[in-house]
Specification:
CATH superfamily: Rhodopsin 7-helix transmembrane proteins
Distance between the termini: 57 Å
Number of domains: 1
Strand order of the largest sheet: 3-2-5
Order of helices and strands: EEHHEHHHHEEHHHHHH
Structural class: mainly alpha
Amino acid sequence: MPHSNNTCTHPSSFLLFFLNCFVRSPIWQRWLSLPLSLLFLLAMGANATLLITIWLEASLHEPMYYLLSLLSLLDIMLCLTVIPKVLLIFWFDLRPISFSACFLQMYVMNCFLAMESCTFLIMAYDRYVAICHPLRYPSIITDQFVAKAAIFIVARNALATVPIPILSARLHYCQYNVIENCICANLSVSKLSCDNVTLNRLYQFIAGWTMLGSDLILIFLSYMFILHAILQLKVKSAAVKALSTCGSHFILILFFSTILLVFILTHVAKKRVSPDVPILLNVLHHVIPAALNPIVYGVRTQEIKQGILKLIRKGVSKGN
């Protein structure tokens, strides 16, 4: 059962946290469970299809598609880390989560969201080179470049986000172990502590804005150069195609960043906003981009579309 007195204790003396997921608005649970389930299935199915297509189709074994594969893997991991637990709460009221599982979820969420932002940056650079320096593209964007970029993405974000769960795990907690959230977000967990949590908040703020902020600025600059290059194209059909592709990519990146920014602002202004709103945004931020990424980046790419159709035709011919 949840504890509710204010005696301070170390986390090891508790076995569980309890996630209060829309308990003030149980009707939200009923209405959200269906669209959330559909978004989860769409995200998992679309990303799995994209990964299988790139893996099996030899013509897609190129740097750009390796980056798409990395993005799909990150999306799948983020969905699996958050959405199944939320659905279990909605369907079966399984609100308990162990301390170790809670801090692991906290780490994976922060780490993989930062990795996704960094992957968007590398993909924006890939499009910049392809459009602004097309003749140099094969010599710049190579398999070795993708391997080094993947190492950078993993190393930077895995190391930079390690202190977030560590700082939360070292706190002493008042015997109120109910998290007012659907997930183990750092700020939601650390505010249960009877210690000073300024360091936790400060590190998350600095790390978040340093990594995500710098990524967004560099992505924006890349697309500004891309837009300038597109406007210089004399062939209108090529310009329209490039603008359509890069425009959809940029809108998706803005959506990824904007929903995170809105979540932060609503969390800061929580006295003026229903407390369920930032919780909802936090959950949706882990599934909507994951559902949209493979569609915008993958299915709209002609080569991937042809690869999927080819695999379907192969499956049908084998079935016959």
